[in-house]
Specification:
The chain is α/β, with parallel strands linked by helices. It is built from twelve helices and seven strands. A hairpin with a 2-residue loop joins strand 6 and strand 7. The longest helix is centred in the first third of the chain and has 31 residues.
């Protein structure tokens, strides 16, 4: 009798666990098939397609108008060099922080130009290679390097690239939005592991070499440079990563502007989701990019970078 009762209890417990699992699965499916999510993914794709269409007119695929290699006489030329934060992943052209910076400077200064050099996925090493091969020919007066937390990628630690259409072709045919959301849930874990490896002692040693070489090359070409650390999130973990890298940037000889604290002070009361580029894209949105542009403009003025440029 006791054995029968215990068996029944085990079955009851197992049934309860199974029911709980089924409820969780059902809830996840409801969220995955949420029509609002579908619209948001379509919006994100629409924004990025518009950016891609614009970038077709740039010889390097940047979301920037084509620029003459030769600098116009009397112009103070700035280039902002970065990755998806400068290309504008999930963000309309006019809300990208380098374009906001250009508009703010043009409103107050004569004969100034701000170029946006950025591609999705670029690291500091990629940016250095671009500058060596092409950027140096533009005779810029100031190079602003936009830094984010995955920039220590020196190419030695492979990263699995998320591709919903390739990884889940059948699901993608049924619902691209559903396939993308499923892919994101998987790729987030692999990204976290990759990030841990980027901040390993050996990789950081390799990254210091990249920073040193970049700084030395700029000095040889008489190019003034500034590194601006642009956070992707307002979290202690993000702050910790920036504080690891900031001394390395300074050790390489770069002036370093870390925007985390000011961003936290100005936008810390917001829900982080409200600061994203759009509901399904975690890149910095309009509020964050406005702080980036304002803080960089103020820093350039306070530190005398623009003293030779005539005000309107």
């Amino acid at each position: 009798m006791r054995s029968t009762k215990r068996t029944f209890q085990y079955k009851l417990l197992a049934g309860g666990i199974l029911a709980g699992v089924l409820v969780l699965v059902a809830w996840q499916l409801v969220k995955l098939f949420n029509p609002t999510d579908k619209k948001n993914y379509e919006l994100n794709e629409k924004i990025n397609q518009r950016n891609r269409d614009f970038a077709q007119h740039n010889p390097f695929g940047f979301t920037d108008k084509p620029r003459n290699t030769k600098k116009p006489n009397g112009v103070f030329r700035i280039a902002v060099l970065g990755d998806s934060f400068i290309w504008g992943d999930g963000l309309p052209y006019e809300k990208i922080w380098s374009h906001k910076l250009e508009n703010k400077l043009l409103a107050q200064y004569d004969s100034i130009e701000v170029m946006s050099w950025g591609l999705c996925g670029w690291s500091t090493l990629d940016e250095f290679n671009f500058y060596k091969q092409y950027g140096k020919d533009y005779n810029i007066d100031l190079l602003i390097i936009g830094w984010i937390e995955n920039d220590p990628d020196v190419g030695k630690i492979p990263r699995v690239q998320a591709n919903a259409e390739k990884d889940h072709p059948l699901l993608y045919k049924i619902s691209p939005a559903l396939a993308q959301k499923f892919e994101n849930s998987v790729s987030d874990k692999s990204y976290d592991l990759w990030m841990e490896q980027l901040y390993s002692l050996q990789n950081l040693k390799d990254y210091q070499v990249v920073l040193n070489d970049f700084s030395h090359y700029l000095a040889q070409n008489n190019t003034r440079a500034l590194v601006v650390m642009t956070p992707s999130a307002l979290a202690e973990s993000e702050d910790s990563l920036l504080n690891i890298i900031a001394p390395m940037i300074q050790q390489a000889g770069f002036p370093c502007l870390n925007l985390y604290n000011d961003l936290k002070n100005k936008l810390g009361h917001y829900n982080m989701a409200d600061l994203h580029a759009n509901p399904v894209n975690g890149h910095p949105g309009d509020l964050m990019t406005s702080v980036f542009a304002d803080d960089v403009k103020n820093y350039l003025e306070e530190q005398g970078y623009l003293k030779q440029v005539r005000r309107r």
